[in-house]
Amino acid sequence: MAKSRILSGIQPTNILHIGNYVGALQQWVTLQQTHDAFFCIVDLHAITVKQDPKQLHDNIRQLAAMYIAAGIDPKQSTIFVQSRVSAHAELGWVLNTLAKVSDLERMTQFKDKSAQHHENINVGLFDYPVLMAADILLYQPEIVPVGDDQSQHVELTRTLAQRFNKQFGDVFHVPKLQLRKEGARIMALDDPTKKMSKSAGSNANYIALTDSADVIRKKIRRAVTDSGSQVVFDPKRAGLYNLLTLYRIFSGMTEAAIEKKFAGAKYGDFKADLAEVIITALSPLQERYAALIKDEKHIEAILDDGAKRAQAVAEVTLKKVYDAVGLG
Ligand code: ATP
Ligand code: LTN
């Protein structure tokens, strides 16, 4: 029987952080074993905020290397760059005619990004979720594994698929959102009321996947926590809870085992241990990344192959869409 499909993507902006790793990449690595997986580098989305062209070009290759370093197997899964498969922009246009301005006005990411980039609230930023819907629907995936912040966009994708199917006949499979149970929303180290974000103003917000051991120690030491003393899982103590969640995920230990281990310990002791757990967990990934990033040709070959594989699937859906609408 054919494996069911998954699709997800990350923007090639800045360097990835442990929130991206936990919320997205780790899920992908597990799911690729049981699914026909497509992982996109969404460069067309990246240009909805100002990018330096040279830097963007380098970021694309770095993100591809990071996908592989994190454990995505390019033989098993398709890794590709969005702008190299023109069907994304083409389907995006068709879906634009089904998306309501009022749908897009409700998107919290648009509201946040507009506040962050008030000097450049361009139409692409507003239209971002429609292109994301095109990314997804072209591949007819069963599930879309992402972090919690993308839930609203996946919901809009489902709405657009259903709207299209109702008007033009059954073309799209309506995909489901897939969040991990714990770690779907890792919070910022310097402000545990906000999600960890790679476009944050300060790098104290996140731990980048390429941070050195010393930087990781320093950032965890300075992470915002309350003035309590007991190291216990209490969602009301947001800063500590976030750090404990990271400990759980990176150590693989249970809540009970962690609380037992740190019974009577101070926050400082716990933080020092957490930093070592993260450093150990990231170190194989960092080694693989350092080797991969030097081999530009190898990455290019993977992306060329990925674009061909993605194109083959995407063009079948686009043709069905054009036929259904009466285009082409
Ligand atoms: P930006 O700050 O530039 O918007 P970002 O840090 O939110 O970037 P994205 O490229 O938007 O990163 O996200 C890539 C993937 O990582 C998405 O699946 C997203 O849901 C997930 N993700 C992002 N931040 C977190 C987080 N703090 N916790 C869990 N998952 C996250
Ligand atoms: N909006 C997503 C990135 C993204 C995406 C996708 C994720 C663009 N297209 C398709 C899943 C499926 C974000 O993380 N900011």
Spell out the key features of this protein.
single chain; 3-stranded parallel sheet; ATP binding; 328 residues; binds L-tryptophanamide; two-stranded parallel sheet; Tyrosyl-Transfer RNA Synthetase; binds adenosine-5'-triphosphate; Rossmann fold; mainly alpha
Describe this entry's structure for a reader:
The chain is mainly alpha-helical. It folds into 2 domains: 5-179 and 296-325, Rossmann fold; 203-290, Tyrosyl-Transfer RNA Synthetase, CATH 1.10.240. The protein is built from 13 helices and 5 strands. It has helices at 18-31, 43-46, 53-69, 87-96, 101-105, 108-116, 123-137, 151-168, 213-222, 238-251, 255-261, 267-292, 296-325; strands at 5-10, 36-41, 78-81, 143-145, 176-178. The strands form 2 sheets. It has a 3-stranded parallel β-sheet with strand order 1-2-3. Strand 1 (5-10), helix 1 (18-31) and strand 2 form a beta-alpha-beta unit. Helix 4 packs across helix 7, helix 4 (87-96) runs parallel beside helix 13 and helix 9 (213-222) runs antiparallel to helix 12. The two termini are 33 Å apart. The mean pLDDT is 96. It binds adenosine-5'-triphosphate and L-tryptophanamide (LTN). L-tryptophanamide binds next to strand 1 and helix 7. Adenosine-5'-triphosphate binds next to helix 1.
